[in-house]
Structure formats: structure tokens, C-alpha cells
Amino acid sequence: MAHQETSLPHTGIATFCKAPFVPDLSDCKADVVVMGVPYDGATAMRPGSRQAPRAIRDASTRFGFLGKENSRGFYDINRDRQLLESVRIVDTGDADVIYYERERNFRLIGEKVRSILGCGAVPMVLGGDHSISYPVLRAFESVGDLTIVLIDAHLDYKDELMGLKYTNNSPMRRAHELPFVKQILNFGIRGIKSTDRDVRESLEAGNLVFSNYDVFEQGVGVLIDQCPENVGNYYVSIDIDGLDPSIAPGTESPEAEGLSVTHVKQILAGLAERGRLVGVDLVELNPYLDHSELTAHISAQLLIETIATGQWGASG
Ligand code: MN
Ligand code: MN
What we know:
Elements: E1 32-37, H1 52-60, E2 74-76, E3 81-83, E4 89-94, H2 102-118, E5 122-127, H3 133-138, E6 146-151, H4 171-176, E7 181-189, H5 196-204, E8 208-211, H6 212-218, H7 220-226, E9 232-239, H8 261-272, E10 275-283, H9 294-309
Parallel strand pairs: 1-4, 1-5, 5-10, 6-7, 6-9, 7-8, 9-10
Antiparallel strand pairs: 2-3
The structure holds manganese (II) ion (2 copies).
């Protein structure tokens, strides 16, 4: 019998969805390029999210035929359509971070993001703690005006914490200081360590802040209607602690009364009507704190869902 390449989920090298591994992007033709940032040097209490890129890739192998030539993608019974049919997805590996050297790491993260944007693809970034979103977003300068969509229990808008400006408490504040970042649309906020001052300063800067109860009581549709009609180019940052810890326990700072996967899907679908998805990250998954790999599997699914739902590619 002739040898056949079966490439089962549990065999071979675990790239994201078993997509081709393309470390050198100089001649890359892809719609989506996955990169990992195994860095949690900005985590104070329960580090471990540096292991998340591997955990997400491992879980994602369940959807291992994505990115293969002539892939038909996935059938979604709820939408009655194929998702991600013939999408070209590749995995370029990890930013070459080392622990302790933040400035060096942030520079290398940015360089890798720029190389992905340079080949016209959507970066899909596997964190890492939430501090990594800032160097990722900083690399989007060439894209022009950008809206950030944050799914998070926390606002991450602290100016500094004990003099530290680049921890996982501040990535959205740092990002909003970038001249091309227009607005941050925050969903699921509820952590009581985000102060009234953080909320006030974010609102005064023109951002929209929707708490978990806003989502529960008003519904996602009403909140999306309060967002700009034309969101333009947007970047989705999913802090996995935005979800309820009953479905996403593997994270540093779990906060009860969180969003469901359905809420996040509704947010993604609402935004897809109003703008173009130019990038996504998923952060704060800590595999050491996970049960049954549940958080890793939900993370992989949310990333696939984000790409499947959005209209990709920057508009001018
Ligand atoms: Mn958070
Ligand atoms: Mn966060």
C-alpha cells in the first residue's frame, strides 16, 4: 500500500491547526499568519502564560485540516455555511523572546508583526500575558487609524503600577497613547481592581466601556448599536479572563460573572458589519491553572471564530 500522509491531529508537529510552518515570511502568500509570544514577564501573581502558545497550538490540532490546500474549512450549522473555506493560514512560530529583557522582547515582537503585515496577512498572536498587546499594536502604524476591541474582565488602562508602565495592567493605556489608535471598545469589564479613575479616564479619552452587566442586561446588540457605525480597521484583543471562569479557569486573574462564548461570538459578528479585522491576539491563558485543557480548547476555538467571522484586511 502506498504511503499516505494522514496528518492526524495527534501526530507530527503541533503548529496552529497544523497549518504549514513558515519561519521566513519573505515570500509568503497567506491570509492569516499565526505567531506566538511566549512571554509572561509582566505577570505579578500567577505566571505561566508563557506556556500558552504551545497549549493553544496543541489544542488547535483538533481542527487540523485548516490551511491545507483545497480545504473546505468548517460547516457551521447555526449559520448554515462553510467557514474559512480555502483560507490560507500559516504558522510562523514564536517571537524570539527571552525572559527579563523586556525592551528587547518588545522590539522583536514588533519586528515579527511588521513582517506579517508586510506580506498583507492578518496577524493572529498567541500570548503571553496582556503586556504583549502593546508591542503588537505599536507595529500597526502602517495600517493607519485603528480601533481596538477589548474582551476583558479588566480595563488594563492603568497609567502605571508602582512606577511600572508596561505590565499587564497597562497595555490599553499604552496603546491609546499611539497616535493612530482612535478608540477602544471594551466589553465585559468587571474586575474591582480597575478603579473609578481608570474608567473615567478611559471614557474621557473617548473610549466605550461596557461592563459584564451591560452585556447581560442590555444584550450585545444594543451595545454594538452604541459603537460607531463605521468602526474602520479594528484589532481584537481577547483576554481570556473576559470569559466566565467556569468555562475558562486557566488564567491569572479569574473574575466571576464573566462573558459566555456566545456573547463573544455576538460581539465579533456585530463588529464584522461595521469594519475590517486587521489583527487579533489572545492572551492571559495560563495552562498551569487550566482544567482538562478546557481554556486552551476554548482559546483555539475563539481564535478560529474571530477569523471566521471578521471581514479581513485593512481598508484605506
Ligand atoms: Mn483581564
Ligand atoms: Mn487584560
